[in-house]
Protein 1
Amino acid sequence: MLGAGGFLGQALSGGLRQQNATVHTFGRTLPAGLPHDALRTEATLHDADALTAALHGQEIVFHLVSSSLPETSNRNPAEHVLEEVLPTLRLLDLCRTARVRKVVFASSGGTVYGIPSVVPTHEQAATVPISAYGINKLMIERYLELYRHLHGLDYTVLRIANPYGPGQSPFKKQGVVAAMLHRAMSGSAIEVWGTGEVTRDFIHVDDVAAAFVAAARHDGPQRTFNVASGTGRSLNQIVDDVKLVLGTPALEVVRKSARAADVPVSILDTSLIRRTTGWQPRVAWMDGLAATATWMRAAYRL
């Protein structure tokens, strides 16, 4: 698993071990909390020797590595192509040599569609990203299809909505739920961009991990799936739910300028993955929000 030290990677590591899978974790830094019996390689995708060794004998590769953010990717698109797309192409070549059967790729359901022509948005909708981040994800999706066509390397793409849950850092510029909870619990003002009516589809990290497991098992002709709750929530609604979960109705909210890379509404249609694999989200929004708050209180001593 590539990107095992990240938010999604740690959740997926646990999910795979529950399935009694043999896991080789690969990442820039790997926390001690990963399964103790997993093989571990601390390196980046630029380290061809380490990557070659880690791929040896692997049947399925989960590609969760991402080094950019939608907000910052437009500042220097060329740099992010070098950091995101080219290393993935080298990875695919190494997968061919190692006789990997399948690659499961974490794409972005919130950015590849751009400003959607239909909501909820299905997998066949137009893909017109408004961020370099979304374009890079889409480029990788296209290269995966090319390598399947040319070399028979199977793949599944998961276009993931906005994951949240225990383990998500509140200090990165991605993860609005974690950021809002942490600021509220530490006595700081919650930041909201624009009018607060930007709407996103939030999915619990445990449900995302389950989708990866379902994708690894999937053997049908469909290769691209949305992974989401199918329900949209505005930033203003999240603020209200944070107040409710924490029991603090008087939280201060600071309004900040809207961001150019934010699509106004992103809600994904998940009927294809439900119908094809039997996967469905199981963690209710308020339950997941409360569990995240409980974890954050313990993790950051709030």
Protein 2
Amino acid sequence: MATHHLTRKDLKHDVVAETVEHQIDWFAAHKQNVTRYAIIVVALVVVIGGGWSYRNYQIANRQRALAEAMNVENAPVGQPSPTGGLSFATEELRTVAAEKAFSKVLTSYPGDDEGFLAEFYLAGLDSDNGKMDLARRKYQDVADHASANYASLAKLALAQLDFAQGKINEARAVLKDLQDHPTDLVSKEQADITLAKGIAATNPDEARKLLAPIAGKAGSTIAEIATTALAEITKK
């Protein structure tokens, strides 16, 4: 299935937007785990001493470089930062700067978690701009070579790209693996929701069966996401 260049405005009305929206859903559902991992990294830098001082220095540098790149991506557009920090006149300028920052992290720290996370973010920027083949290659590299947690994030994104490009069977296979092998960062429920969203248009009954048990677990963010997805299917 051929793809075309997509602007951010186009993405609001295209299936490809699910890739970006899902990342927002994932961070909302896993905020506690993300925070815990960040605390662990900081704790490693603080606690491990003595002969490990150089290792601490390396970890701190990698984390700092990744944080700086993320700050670029999250900088405000079209208006000065309220804190007087970094800002950009246009989305395009911010994207160029973010790509440069993440590429520097990837080049500087290949094979480290920070490098793979930078590659993951670069893939997201490619997806956001309709460069689906480039996004797929980057996500696949993370899926094949990163540690289990970060590889699972890339696999989730690959499944969404498969759905966006009409590769339903391929998406199912990836999600089946995630359902069978959940990680701290991608739960079975998250894989179920991704599958449900991907098949909602062609198999709404199966999608509802996947979402209903998750939506029934009241009081959690993941349940709220499932409930919203279930409501969207019902409206169609």
Protein 3
Amino acid sequence: MNTHAALPVPRSLLLRLWFGLAAAGLFMAVATVQGAMRPGYNAWHQAISALSLGSGGWVQQVNFVIFGAALVGTAPAWRRLLAGGTGASAYPILIAATGLSFIVASVVRQDPAPGYDPEGLSLERRTTLGIIHLAIAGVAAASSVIALLVMAQRFAGDPVWRGWSAYSRSMALVTVLCVVVYGVWSTRATGFAGTFERAAILLPVVWAFTFLRRLWAGRPFMVAGAASPPTRRR
């Protein structure tokens, strides 16, 4: 990105992106409260998706939809913010894919996990819908990680954002590690699978918070004229 042509981001645009972060905070808050109230549910071990099972599971399903819709809703703002540089199309698409994955996950529920079977199904093997749910979760995780790598490329070589390329790549790597640890621990009845799953969700949110906070402080980022509507000729 040509830093000499970079401009500060309008507060009105940033507010639209802060909305997505607020939705992420609400999503985690609702899941935390549900986990504390659900008999037999252990938030340290169980995935957030497990809250969709059993009585009251509709609350988490709605929680998925609201969060997913909020993410999709920020895609146009991200596209405007990134216009004229690397990731202008890729990053908004990846954010929208993440949001859509959460929405679909609200409908396609996971199978009962080891240590938490509120409906008493006692399944001996995974169901087709359960496998699809895992695939959807994989799409959400992959989209989040690739989005961080796209932004790492955007920051590369920009002296105004020195260190942010490495920071973005590091967050992507740690997110992948959290997903892997979750995958291994989720096959057991005890452990900290839920902890690492929540970390994998929160790491991209933390990255977005630090990024938007820097933009809010006035750090130039937008390419001059790239996101401005064309003027009409008289």
Protein 4
Amino acid sequence: MKKRKKYSLIALALAGLLLLAGCSSKNLTSSSAGFWNQFVFTFARIIQWLSFGGTVAIGIILFTILIRTVLLPLMNLQIKSSLKMQELQPEIKKIQAKYPGKDMASRQAVSEETQRLYSENKANPYMGCLPVLVQMPILWALYQSLTNVSFLKEGSFLWLNIGTKDPYYILPVLAAVFTFLSSWLNMKAAPERNNMTLAMTVFLPIMIFVMAMNISSGVSLYWVISNAFQVFQTLAIANPFKIIAAREAKVQAEKDRLKAREKALKKAKRR
């Protein structure tokens, strides 16, 4: 039930974004009608202002980092909430195994014990979802500004023509690599993994690579910077290697405690 509600919230947000996308003009200008169009165009103006020396690519890089930095508190909240929920999954499975029946009484018992578990651990299954809902319109507006505003499709940077696809496919490769690393790092710390998560870790980078091969270099550059930022953000906020080490240390400490207790009991018996 909780998962269904969570997915319903995400589906509602996606539907809202699709509606906004349908209302958005393909060639946005300062005179384009509608709040969403003006919101997207404001993003384009900020990118233009950050384009030092008239280099749009620099504006894209700086604004992407700026947006990601502003969203950092929300991402921090999302990551910590997701980690807490991951840690509770084994306990939730024990509760479900305790009440395997499909009748109303069993479902009610599972729900009550799960809620008690959340309460005791100060966990909220929706906290990992709400930050995503806030971020999606902002990131979507950034994406639309790069695809629908003409002055962000002009200019060159290094080997790139911002308005056309990367001729050497360097950006598509980097976008796919950083997307994979981001998904892999998020998955690595999970105590349990499922086939869907594993499939998405492989499928999403492939999808990003194929899309980046056929889209403007400006959008590809945004994907590279955004996903690279997310990789470093994960390593800084929720480093999976540190999480795994802490988890193993906790398990080892419990084993050592039990061994010490057994030794103490054996000594007591000898006396």
